[in-house]
Structure formats: C-alpha cells, structure tokens
Amino acid sequence: MQRKVIIAGGGTGGHIFPAIAIANALKTQAKGDIDILFVGAKGKMEMEKVPQAGYRIEGLEIVGFNRSNIFKNILLPFKLIKSLGHANRILREFKPDVVVGVGGFASFPMLDRAQRHGIPTLIQEQNSFAGKANKVLSHRAARICTGYDGMEKFFPASKILVTGNPVRSSITQSHATRHESLVHFGLDANKKTVFVVGGSLGAKSINEAIHALLASFVEKDVQLIWQTGKPYFETAKAAAAPFSSHVKVLEFITNMDQAYAAADVVISRAGALAIAELCVVKKATVFVPYPFAAEDHQTSNAMSLVNKKAALLLKDNEVGAQLGTTLFSLLQNKALIEQLETNIASLANPHADQTIAEEVLKLVR
Ligand SMILES: CC(=O)N[C@H]1[C@@H](OP(=O)(O)OP(=O)(O)OC[C@H]2O[C@@H](n3ccc(=O)[nH]c3=O)[C@H](O)[C@@H]2O)O[C@H](CO)[C@@H](O)[C@@H]1O
C-alpha cells in the first residue's frame, strides 16, 4: 500500500533544504512507493524551491510573529485560524499516514491539526535552542529528531533521537573538485579562495564588511565568491565590478557543493544547515552568528563548534572592524586551517537524512 507523508514548514533555506533531504531519503527507502506532499507558507521561498526539487506543495496563508514591529501582528490570530482550517482540509483530502514538521511558518498549524486528528507527527528540530512552536508541539509528537544533543531541556527525553541535521545528497555525495569548481565560477585554480555566505537570505553586516575589504582581496591576491542574498545584490555587483578578476558576486547559489569545494576558507552565518553542511564538506570556517535569531540560537549553534575548536567565531558587531584581520591571518595559518578542518569533519552526520526517513516510515501504521 502506498504510504502518504506530509512535510510541513519552510520560510528560509534552513527549513526547506532539510525537508527536501528527508523527502529524497523517503523516496529511496520506500523505493518510490510513497506519496509526499509539502505544505508551506504562501509567498515564501519554499513555494519556488520545493517544486524545483520535483515535489508538490500547498501554501497556507500564515505569517510569523513580527518581533520588530508589534503592531504588524494584528492580523496574526485571523491568519492562524484561517490556516488551521486550511490544514484541516489538507488532512481530509490527502489522508497522510504521518506528518513531519521541519519548523517555520506552516509547521505549527499543520502539526497541531494532525495531532488533534490522532495522526502521528515527527518534528525535525535543526537548532540547538528549540523554538516555542516546537516546544508546544513536542508533547504530542511521536518522535523528535534533533540536530544537536542536550535537547532534553526543551522536549520530552523519551521522544528525542539525536540524528544530526539532514544535508542534501547533492552535497553529501558531491563529486565536485576544487579545480573544476573554481573554473565553474570563472576563477583561477591556483589562487587561494574565500567563500562568503550569509544564509539563505544574505547577511547585511557581513556584506558591508566584505564590501569594505574588496580592494584587499586584489592586493593580497585572494579570490572571493560572495553570496549576497537579494537585498544587497545590486550594490555588491556594482562595488565588485572593478575587482572582477578576483571577486565573483552571486545573489543565491544553487550548486552549493561547488561553492564549498572551491573554498579554502568559508565565512558564514551560523544557521543550523550551513553548519551541518560545513561539517560534511570539512571547511575551515569563521562563523558570524545572526544575533537576532530567536533566543540568539545561531550563537548557541556556533558555540557548540567553537568549544570543540572546530571553527572560529566573530560577533556580528565585531565583523566590520575585525573580519579582515581574522580572515587574512587565518589564510596564512596552514596549521590552524588543518586543525579546524579535522575537528569540523568529526562532527559531520552525512546519513541524518536516511536515519530520519527510517523514523518517519516506522510511524506509518
Ligand atoms: C535568520 C534566521 O533566523 N535564520 C535561521 C534559518 O536560516 P537560514 O535559512 O539562513 O539558514 P541555514 O544556514 O540553516 O540554511 C541555509 C540553507 O540554504 C542553502 N543556501 C544558502 C545560500 C545560498 O545561496 N544557497 C543555498 O542553497 C544552504 O546550503 C543551506 O542548506 O533557519 C536555520 C535552520 O532552522 C536557523 O538555524 C537560522 O538561524
């Protein structure tokens, strides 16, 4: 009998790409005999990225709580009620055996309704600090697969399985070489290269710090692959034009495996998936956690590596003044790069997608 699974959530790449990794692993394990429906939030990134990965998606009309402008939350209760109704309709029509929540807007209404209808739910929590919605949902969830250990602080201990975060197979099974990837980006295969990535949406403070350092990259003969996110892309492109021999600017990178393969050193936000991927690809990294993520969870994510000497960290408010020194001295320090590479590699969980898929299939009655 064909199994039916809903995967709900999204909002940013850090929720969408683990969801796609789980879906792909489910398809492999069920040998194609599975029907998967994604549920996301209308207007968010998943409505584009999920169909690109070959899956169907339904969009709920749901928005997140706006922390910066409290008055923008007036419509929130109405949208929540509407999305709960929509979630009920999806359950009635699709009749899933299991509902998986990956966090982000659509996850809460979909899992809440599934739990009320007695449908088993599995939560995949990416961060080392649990969000409020997942804490509420955890009491009635059947299983909680976590990216980090120590999550008993937030969830019922008996339901937790520490799996690590599921990384897309295009990264875990990549054959991209450094040489071929540098050529792909139009760069010189003999020069040191830095990859800067500000998470799926880009990072303002990192972009501004890099912008100020552009001439230094040429001076030091170091190449740069600069992922800017949408808002900063045009500014960055114009600023980098005089340095185009050394600097490549991209708004969003689809083949992340090539960007990782090209890099000697990475500068990155500390989103949970960026971290999981950097462990798999074994890169010496300077993390700049986004300080306004809920409960400052990016700092907590990054510190779990820094404490194991597996990465360096710069605070967001230090990045403008210190990024240049930290980066260019790291590039000169071969021993430190090797130590960071060895230590970060030991934290990789390249089979998390398969382990989570097994857990999902166990819940099918
Ligand atoms: C601001 C904020 O609250 N961000 C959260 C969001 O981040 P965000 O979505 O930015 O973070 P992650 O770093 O976890 O994931 C980014 C994902 O997008 C992919 N990618 C990124 C850039 C690009 O050009 N191309 C590309 O494919 C990466 O390979 C990765 O798979 O979700 C994460 C997982 O819950 C959280 O840890 C982050 O704190």
UniProtKB/TrEMBL annotation:
Its main location: membrane. Keywords: Cell cycle, Cell division, Cell membrane, Cell shape, Cell wall biogenesis/degradation, Glycosyltransferase, Membrane, Peptidoglycan synthesis, Transferase. Residues 193-342 form the Glycosyl transferase family 28 C-terminal domain. It catalyses: di-trans,octa-cis-undecaprenyl diphospho-N-acetyl-alpha-D-muramoyl-L-alanyl-D-glutamyl-meso-2,6-diaminopimeloyl-D-alanyl-D-alanine + UDP-N-acetyl-alpha-D-glucosamine = di-trans,octa-cis-undecaprenyl diphospho-[N-acetyl-alpha-D-glucosaminyl-(1->4)]-N-acetyl-alpha-D-muramoyl-L-alanyl-D-glutamyl-meso-2,6-diaminopimeloyl-D-alanyl-D-alanine + UDP + H(+). Cell wall formation. Catalyzes the transfer of a GlcNAc subunit on undecaprenyl-pyrophosphoryl-MurNAc-pentapeptide (lipid intermediate I) to form undecaprenyl-pyrophosphoryl-MurNAc-(pentapeptide)GlcNAc (lipid intermediate II). It holds the Pfam family Glyco_tran_28_C. This is UDP-N-acetylglucosamine--N-acetylmuramyl-(pentapeptide) pyrophosphoryl-undecaprenol N-acetylglucosamine transferase. It comes from Chitinophaga parva. UDP-N-acetyl-alpha-D-glucosamine binds at T12, G13, G14, N127, R168, S200, I253, Q298. It is a peripheral membrane protein. It is found in: Cell membrane. Gene3D superfamilies: Glycogen Phosphorylase B (3.40.50.2000). CDD domains: GT28_MurG (cd03785). Pathway: Cell wall biogenesis; peptidoglycan biosynthesis. Its EC number is 2.4.1.227. GO terms for molecular function: UDP-N-acetyl-D-glucosamine:N-acetylmuramoyl-L-alanyl-D-glutamyl-meso-2,6-diaminopimelyl-D-alanyl-D-alanine-diphosphoundecaprenol 4-beta-N-acetylglucosaminlytransferase activity; undecaprenyldiphospho-muramoylpentapeptide beta-N-acetylglucosaminyltransferase activity. Residues 5-145 form the Glycosyltransferase family 28 N-terminal domain. GO terms for cellular component: plasma membrane. GO terms for biological process: carbohydrate metabolic process; cell division; cell wall organization; peptidoglycan biosynthetic process; regulation of cell shape.
